[in-house]
Amino acid sequence: MTKPVLTPLAQSLPASVPFVGPEAAERASGKPFIARLGANENTFGPSPRAISAMQKAASEVWMYGDPESFELRNALAAHHGIAPENIMVGEGIDTLLGVLVRLYVGQGDAVVTSDGAYPTFNYHVAGFGGELHKVPYVDDHEDPASLIVKAREVEAKLIYIANPDNPMGTWHSADVINQMIADIPDGSLLVLDEAYIEMAPEGTAPEMQVDNPNLIRMRTFSKAYGMAGARVGYAIGAAEVIDAFNKVRNHFGMCRISQAGALAALKNSDWLAHVQSEIITARETIKQIAADNGLTTIPSATNFVAIDCGQDGAFARRVLAALLEDGIFARMPFVAPQDRCIRVSCGTPEQMDAFKKALPVALQKRGATAW
Amino acid sequence: MTKPVLTPLAQSLPASVPFVGPEAAERASGKPFIARLGANENTFGPSPRAISAMQKAASEVWMYGDPESFELRNALAAHHGIAPENIMVGEGIDTLLGVLVRLYVGQGDAVVTSDGAYPTFNYHVAGFGGELHKVPYVDDHEDPASLIVKAREVEAKLIYIANPDNPMGTWHSADVINQMIADIPDGSLLVLDEAYIEMAPEGTAPEMQVDNPNLIRMRTFSKAYGMAGARVGYAIGAAEVIDAFNKVRNHFGMCRISQAGALAALKNSDWLAHVQSEIITARETIKQIAADNGLTTIPSATNFVAIDCGQDGAFARRVLAALLEDGIFARMPFVAPQDRCIRVSCGTPEQMDAFKKALPVALQKRGATAW
């Protein structure tokens, strides 16, 4: 009996995962984390009103979610002062990026991103046979000008930039991003991933530009709104670009509970302000903990801080492993020289205390001996 | 400025949805349904323990779901007496079907299904450029023998059959399905969609056959477990077929709340038994309501019943519209001659009473006059 055969493209792809899950690390170590600070999650959690809304919706989960996410989409439109036709709600930015790549990137089509930027975007590009072209970070920042030059050179279908950036936490002002938007090459679509935008200073987000069919922006409830596990993201763009999602998206893919939670979270701006304040405090705490250990941090506009461990990637990796032995889960950038850093999420005072205790031990354990 | 251009495949696809959502119908009519009996949902709802588990998980939703769905996958493996390597958990069968088609169906590849069977599968096949070949129902049943003949003729990559069937509710015995499995042509993969299997009589589901790389089965928490809005399905197959999902699936796509709910639901077999019993009762109620109006029903192994309205599709459509005016939401098969029927979900006694009152009115309103 002849087995079924994968498509040539699928055959060429490894069975891989952009990130190993925190739970897998816990299972490997045999004990739960003391502080889960590695998955770019928001430990301050969702609005209590969002929790209530989700708890209420749990008993209604026998119904499919509204495939149009009508209420949420309209609330988001009002929130941003744009039309519902400019918004597509999806199962997190990861899913929206996958659909976007599927719509625009055929086999061999060029895509531009930064070397060391979001791996899940790269995973989708590879998954649809696109050719990735990467430009390096400059001073731990993504480099808009080089991204544009490269995009022009390779005639990129998509250009990806995250502002603020993951994994470094750095950011560009709206002026810089607006210049990048003005410079988008003919035929390219700029994917502006603003997953962390609610944590960034005023003046980071450009104004809405929903008449521009060469720009699409990604937002999420996973970060500032503290609902990573709910899988709610949304794209903002020109109506024709947004409507194209309806060609291939999973129309009934949204969790009904998550839709209810996101709607309640959006309406609770006080909680968002509270989280924003906690994050600013925790960033300073991480900076101080690093300084107490003779280390510097990269300024961050996100809910994580990259600590420069002052040596190479191998050293940073040893520090991470030592932290994990003490129950502290963190991660690190994949690419040199950014991989000299470890990336630590903002946490509650208890979590920050646990990290404060563990970091000097980890540095001492791993500093002198080969691992 | 030149706009970004969709891939040729994406350009060729309409912006469409396999089903318009019930909420859209409610918004159009300006009033909520009295009985939501059209979306193949289980109005008896999820296990109270599943609801509790989801309510508890809501406050932990700041964490991403485990990308391996480790606990749920292991519990499912134990439940079915197979290995975790034979199970892939995903965001509902819709998503799993999309990934499966993506893995196996390239542009122009042949796929076989029944004319009038699950439209979302067809949507995915079209979305990846596959060529659909359809065989007709026979006596309101999918026709395994013809599906196999057609698959052999066109050298199908995938063969789709739902057992029990949607939209008709009919089913084949495990013996018939086992014969179909034995007859799978070289190189074809049989997709056995068993979304409704927990509602079918003993002897409908074949034994597990996880050594067979030409067979993949789809199961879900959306139907008997009453959790459609949670988006939890799973595929059962040979380890190599299951592992291929890891090449392209959205690893962090599962809602953490839904994972918790599905795990609790699986463990609460008493509630499943309760729902199974309610469904058997409601099927009989629908049959009786139809009989009281001079109509017959198609025997069903699902939580819906197709009522033969005795005329053509246009008439059935008028009956549906009239029911909707009275707040009863139902649907109908898309293809003749099955579209002589309307499809009504099993409901609570209150919902069945509402339907009982509305049906004769709808038949009378629509029977004599053109609509």
Automatic annotation (TrEMBL), chains A, B:
It is an enzyme of class 2 (transferase). This is histidinol-phosphate transaminase. Keywords: Amino-acid biosynthesis, Aminotransferase, Histidine biosynthesis, Pyridoxal phosphate, Transferase. InterPro entries: Aminotrans_II_pyridoxalP_BS (IPR001917), Aminotransferase_I/II_large (IPR004839), HistidinolP_aminotransfase (IPR050106), PyrdxlP-dep_Trfase (IPR015424), PyrdxlP-dep_Trfase_major (IPR015421), PyrdxlP-dep_Trfase_small (IPR015422). It comes from Yoonia maritima. Its cofactor is pyridoxal 5'-phosphate. Its EC number is 2.6.1.9. It catalyses: L-histidinol phosphate + 2-oxoglutarate = 3-(imidazol-4-yl)-2-oxopropyl phosphate + L-glutamate. PROSITE patterns: AA_TRANSFER_CLASS_2. Belongs to the class-II pyridoxal-phosphate-dependent aminotransferase family. Histidinol-phosphate aminotransferase subfamily. It comes from the Bacteria. One of its GO terms (molecular function) is histidinol-phosphate transaminase activity. Residues 36-357 form the Aminotransferase class I/classII large domain.
